[in-house]
Write a structure and sequence with these properties.
The complex is a heterodimer of chains A (251) and B (301). Chain A is α/β, with parallel strands linked by helices. Chain A contains 6 helices and 13 strands. Helix content of chain A is 26%, strand content 30%. The longest helix of chain A is centred in the first third of the chain and has 15 residues. Chain A starts with a strand and ends in a 5-residue tail after the last helix. In chain A, 48% of the residues are buried. Chain B folds into 2 domains: 158 residues, HUPs (Rossmann fold, 3-Layer(aba) Sandwich), CATH 3.40.50.620; 118 residues, 3-Layer(aba) Sandwich (Rossmann fold). Chain B has a 7-stranded parallel beta sheet with strand order 7-11-6-1-4-5-12. Chain B has a 5-stranded parallel beta sheet with strand order 15-14-16-17-18. A 3-stranded antiparallel beta sheet of chain B has the order 8-9-10, with no helix packed on it. In chain B, helix 3 crosses helix 4. The radius of gyration of chain B is 20 Å and the shape is elongated. The chains are: A alpha/beta (251), B alpha/beta (301). At the A-B interface, helix 3, helix 4, strand 7, strand 8 and strand 9 of A face helix 3, helix 4, strand 7, strand 9 and strand 10 of B. The complex binds flavin-adenine dinucleotide (2 copies). One flavin-adenine dinucleotide sits at the interface of chains B and A. Chain B: Keywords: Electron transport, FAD, Flavoprotein, Transport. Chain B: Pfam families: ETF, ETF_alpha.
Chain lengths: 251, 301
C-alpha cells in the first residue's frame, strides 16, 4: 500500500477543565488553562497509526492549523506514531469553513489517500470541519465512525447514528471522522516521546497557501448559561416519590 | 424569506426533533420541507409547511447525494434547517461545504434571521453568533423549540428524482428494536452509569422505566463498558435530552454528561458518593446504594 493518511489535529482546552466565561463576554478564559490534543483527534491519530501498522497505509502525516504553541499536539501525535507533521501557522482563530480550505490545500499538496480526523472539537463543538472538507474535495464521507476496514480501494465505515449503527462503503480517497468508540488511543511512551522530537515538523505560513480564511460568523457575545440551584437530599425512595408527585408535580 | 427544512420520517411518523426544526424555521418566514425516502404523506401533513419536496428514491440518507440535491435547490432559500440529529449533522455541514458557507450547528435560540445562540465548551458557555452568509445553514436542538403538531397541514408535494450516489454505497443498518419512547422526546428519562457495574444490573432500570413510560439513557462509561448500546449515550457527544424528569442512577455527572441533560426540568440523582458532581445539578438526591434504592423506588411508584 502506498496510501498516505492525513490526520488534522486541534489544540483545545483540556477536557477536564471547566471553562469560565471572560468577564467582558468576549469569549472564555484560556490564559493559564491546560491545553491538550482534542480527544477525538487522539482517536483519529491512533486509527491512522493502526492502519499503517496493519500495512493498509504507508505514512501518517499530522497537520494542525494554529499558533506556534500548537506544535505540542503535533509532537504528541508523532510520539503516538505519526511519521511527520505540518504546522500551518496563523495567529487567528479560524472557523471550520476556513480550516477546511486550509486542509484541502494541504491534502492536495500531500496527495492524501485518506483523511482521518475527529468528529468534533470539544471547544467549539461544531462537528462540521470533516463534512465541509469532504464536500470541498468532492470526496465521500464516513462520519461518526466506530469501525473502519480498508479493502480493494474502498473503505467500509460503521457509523454511530441515532437509532443504532449504519455501515457505508466509500471509494477512496475519503474523509472519515472518528467517534469515541473507534479505538482506545495508546499512551505515548517516554522513548517514543524522545524519538518524536527528531521527527520532521514543517512550518507553513498560512498566507503562502493563498486560501480564503475569512470568518463568516461574528461572535456577538459569550455568556454563562443559567446555573441550576443545588436541590435537597431526601432519605428514602418513598419520600422521593412523594416529592415528585406533590412538590415537583412531575409524575 | 423562505426556509427549507430537512424532515426525518421514521416508521411513517415525522420525528419530534424535525417537528421542532419546522417550528424554529417558521420564525424566518414561509417554510418548505424536503423528505428523503418514504414519508411524504406524514411530512406534507405538518402544519405550516407550504411545499414539500419528496425524494422517494433517496433512501438511507446518504450524505453525498442528499447534499448535492440540497445544494441544487439552495438558491431559493434564505435558511436551510435540520434537527441536530445524526442525519442533520452528517448532511448539513456537507451542504455548507458545497455552498461555501459556514454552518451554524446546535442552535438553541434564534435572535433574528442572522443571529443565533449556540452552546460551546460542552454547554459551559453560550455564544451568540451573527452570520454574514447569504444562505444560512443551521441545525437546531429539538429540546429548545416546541414542536409543531404532527397533523393539520396540507403542503403541495413535488416529487424529485434522486441523484446517483456514486462514491458512497449503503451497506446495512442495525437498529435497536425498542418499544420505549425515543430518548430525545421522552417525558421521563432514567439513565445509568458505571455504578450499575455490569450489563445484567443495567436491566434494573427497566421496571422503573416501564412504570414511568421512560426512555433509558446511559453515561459514556456505561456504554464503553458494554452495559448499553451507543445510541443510549447522553452527553456532549451523545444525545441531548431535556425531559420533564431525568433520573441519574450511579453516574457521577461529568461535565460531558451534564452537557446532555442539565436542561431537564427536574433532575433526580441516586449515588453513594455525596460529593458526586451530579448532586450539584439535582433537584432531589438520594445518597445511597442504588442496589437498595432501585427496588424500593420501583415499589413506591
Ligand atoms: C468564544 C469563541 C470565540 C470565537 N471567536 C472566533 C472569531 O472571532 N473568529 C473566528 O474565526 N472563529 C472564532 N471562534 C471559532 C473557533 O475557535 C473554532 O475553532 C472554530 O469554530 C472551529 O470549530 P471546531 O473546532 O469546533 O470544529 P469541528 O468541526 O468540531 O472540528 C472537527 C475536527 O476538525 C479538525 N480541526 C478543527 N480545527 C482544526 C485546526 N485548527 N487544525 C487542525 N484540525 C482542525 C479536527 O480534526 C477536529 O476534531 C470562536 C470560538 C469561541 C469558542
Ligand atoms: C471527548 C469526551 C467526550 C465525552 N462524552 C461523553 C458523553 O457524551 N456522555 C457521557 O456520559 N460521558 C462522556 N464522556 C465521559 C465523561 O468524562 C465521564 O468519564 C463519564 O460520563 C463517566 O461515566 P459514569 O458517571 O457512569 O462513571 P463514573 O464517573 O465512574 O461514576 C460512577 C458513579 O457511580 C457511583 N456508584 C458506584 N456504585 C454505586 C452504587 N452501588 N450505588 C449508587 N451509586 C454508585 C459512584 O459514586 C460514581 O459517582 C466524554 C469524555 C470525553 C473525554
Amino acid at each position: 500500500m502506498t496510501m498516505k493518511v492525513l490526520v488534522p489535529v486541534k489544540r483545545v482546552v483540556d477536557y477536564n477543565v471547566k471553562v469560565r466565561v471572560a468577564a467582558d463576554g468576549s469569549g472564555v478564559e484560556t490564559q493559564g488553562v491546560k491545553m491538550s490534543m482534542n480527544p477525538f483527534d487522539e482517536i483519529a491519530v491512533e486509527e491512522a497509526v493502526r492502519l499503517r501498522e496493519k500495512g493498509a497505509a504507508k505514512e501518517v502525516v499530522v497537520v494542525t492549523v494554529g499558533a506556534q504553541v500548537a506544535q505540542d499536539v503535533l509532537r504528541t501525535a508523532m510520539a503516538m506514531g505519526a511519521d511527520r507533521a505540518i504546522l500551518v501557522r496563523t495567529d487567528d482563530t479560524l472557523e471550520p469553513r476556513a480550516v477546511a480550505n486550509v486542509l484541502k490545500a494541504i491534502a492536495t499538496r500531500e496527495e492524501a489517500g485518506l483523511i482521518c480526523m475527529g468528529k468534533q472539537a470539544i471547544d467549539d463543538d461544531m462537528n462540521a470541519t470533516g463534512q465541509i472538507l469532504a464536500a470541498k474535495l468532492g470526496w465521500p464521507q464516513g462520519t461518526f465512525a466506530s469501525a473502519v476496514t480498508i479493502a480493494d480501494g474502498r473503505i467500509e465505515v460503521s457509523r454511530e447514528i441515532d437509532g443504532g449503527t449504519e455501515v457505508v462503503s466509500l471509494t477512496l480517497p475519503a474523509v472519515v471522522t472518528a467517534d469515541l468508540r473507534l479505538n482506545e488511543p495508546r499512551y505515548a511512551s517516554l522513548p517514543n516521546i524522545m524519538k518524536a522530537r527528531k521527527k520532521p515538523l514543517e512550518t507553513v505560513e498560512i498566507d503562502s497557501l493563498g486560501v480564503d480564511t475569512a470568518s463568516r460568523l461574528t461572535v456577538v457575545s459569550v455568556a454563562e448559561p443559567l446555573e441550576r440551584k443545588e436541590g435537597v437530599k431526601v432519605n428514602s425512595a418513598a419520600e422521593l416519590v412523594e416529592k415528585l408527585k406533590t412538590e415537583a408535580k412531575v409524575i | 424569506m423562505t426556509a427549507l427544512v430537512l424532515v426525518e420520517v421514521e416508521n411513517g411518523a415525522v420525528r419530534q426533533a424535525s417537528r421542532s426544526a419546522v417550528a424554529a424555521a417558521s420564525r424566518f418566514g414561509a417554510v418548505d420541507a424536503i423528505v428523503f425516502g418514504a414519508g411524504a404523506e406524514a411530512a406534507a401533513a405538518l402544519p405550516g409547511v407550504t411545499r414539500l419536496l419528496s425524494v422517494p428514491g433517496l433512501v438511507n440518507d446518504l450524505a453525498e447525494p442528499a447534499a448535492d440535491l440540497l445544494a441544487a435547490r439552495a438558491k431559493d432559500y434564505s435558511h436551510i434547517v435540520a434537527a441536530a440529529s445524526a442525519t442533520g449533522k452528517n448532511i448539513l455541514p456537507r451542504l455548507a461545504g458545497l455552498l461555501d458557507v459556514q454552518p451554524i450547528p446546535d442552535v438553541v435560540e434564534i435572535k433574528d434571521a442572522d443571529t443565533f445562540v449556540r452552546p460551546i465548551y460542552a454547554g459551559n458557555a453560550l455564544a451568540t453568533v451573527r452570520s454574514a452568509d447569504s444562505i444560512k445553514v443551521l441545525t437546531v436542538r429539538g429540546s429548545n423549540f416546541d414542536p409543531v403538531a404532527a397533523e393539520g397541514g396540507s403542503a403541495t408535494v413535488e416529487t424529485i428524482e434522486a441523484p446517483a450516489s456514486g462514491k458512497s454505497v449503503f451497506v446495512k443498518v442495525e437498529l435497536s428494536a425498542s418499544d420505549r419512547p425515543e430518548l430525545e422526546s421522552a417525558r421521563v428519562v432514567i439513565s445509568g452509569g458505571k455504578g450499575l457495574k455490569d450489563a445484567a444490573n443495567f436491566k434494573l432500570l427497566e421496571p422503573i422505566a416501564n412504570k414511568l413510560n421512560a426512555a433509558i439513557g446511559a453515561s459514556r462509561a456505561a456504554v464503553d463498558s458494554g452495559f448499553a448500546p451507543n445510541e443510549m449515550q447522553v452527553g456532549q457527544t451523545g444525545k441531548i435530552v431535556a425531559p420533564e424528569l431525568y433520573i441519574a442512577v450511579g453516574l457521577s455527572g461529568a461535565i460531558q454528561h451534564l452537557a446532555g441533560m442539565k436542561d431537564s426540568r427536574v433532575i433526580v440523582a441516586i449515588n453513594t458518593d455525596p460529593e458526586a458532581p451530579i448532586f450539584k445539578v439535582a433537584d432531589y438526591g438520594i445518597v445511597g446504594d442504588l442496589f437498595e434504592v432501585l427496588p424500593t423506588l420501583e415499589k413506591a411508584l
